[in-house]
Design brief:
Helix content is about 75%, strand content about 0%. By secondary structure, it is mostly helical.
Length: about 250
């Protein structure tokens, strides 16, 4: 049975990865669902060319490394999810939840944005998931409020810090530690995971982000490319820790 099932799961995972790539390519560029285009010549790509990662028929540009990585990871990942899905979600619910988180991850890494419509969709879906499947209404609503509120407080601290540094340096500092999209994402994850699990997500995401930032600063210093107040995408840390917590949700209930 597995000999037949595994190839089918890999094909399905490849298609889910194609959807993640499509959303990550199209939404930051057009803010709506439009045809995918070649990033080199901006000519539309056919659906089959896009899914199969074929070179652009107009200019011959190859599919990006990110698209290849995402689709291959999903092809393998869906097989792993089939055999060991998160206990609270199960296999079928894990697919849309992790696809959503994957798209948020890619968009923030590449475009440094967590779009408000994407967060709004996540909030509605997360509330339904949290209330009716994972947490119940009280834990879900408290989790959403706590996730949003804690990150909003950190966002304000980062904003104040940037203003102070602007005065000290005598020039405007545009970079902030957190964007408002990170605040919205924390609220979405709070609705999905409920309270107190969102507190664990925020704690370990901050620790993970701090550790990665430290290594980046050391690397930039060693290569003499250090720039003060260099910001890094923060949503990926929230997504990574949230994915782990989904697997631990039942044990933490």
């Amino acid at each position: 049975m597995d000999y037949i099932l595994i190839p089918l799961l890999m094909i399905a995972g490849w298609l889910v990865g194609s959807l993640v790539n499509y959303l990550s390519d199209v939404l930051p560029r057009t803010r709506r669902l439009t045809a995918a285009v070649c990033p080199s010549c901006e000519k539309p790509l056919t659906l089959l060319d896009y899914i199969l990662l074929r070179p652009c028929p107009s200019c011959g540009a190859r599919a990006s490394i990110r698209r290849r990585v995402v689709q291959n990871l999903w092809a393998l990942g869906l097989v792993a999810l089939w055999f060991r899905p998160p206990a609270g979600l199960g296999f079928w619910l894990t697919i849309p939840v992790f696809a959503y988180l994957s798209a948020v991850f890619v968009m923030d890494v590449e475009h440094r944005v967590v779009m408000h419509p994407v967060s709004l969709f996540g909030a509605v879906a997360g509330a339904l998931l949290g209330i009716f499947v994972l947490n119940g209404p009280i834990s879900t609503l408290i989790g959403g409020a706590a996730g949003f509120g804690i990150m909003f407080g950190l966002y304000l601290l980062g904003f104040v810090f940037s203003k102070i540094m602007s005065r000290i340096r005598g020039e405007e500092v545009d970079e902030v530690a957190l964007g408002f999209g990170d605040v919205n994402l924390a609220g979405v994850l709070g609705l999905m995971l409920g309270w107190p699990r969102i507190g664990v997500v925020l704690l370990f995401a901050i620790l993970l982000g701090g550790a990665v930032s430290l290594f980046l600063v050391i690397g930039m210093a060693l290569t003499k490319k250090y720039r003060p107040l260099t910001a890094i995408p923060y949503a990926p840390f929230l997504v990574i820790v949230a994915a782990v917590i989904f697997y631990m949700a039942r044990a933490m209930a």
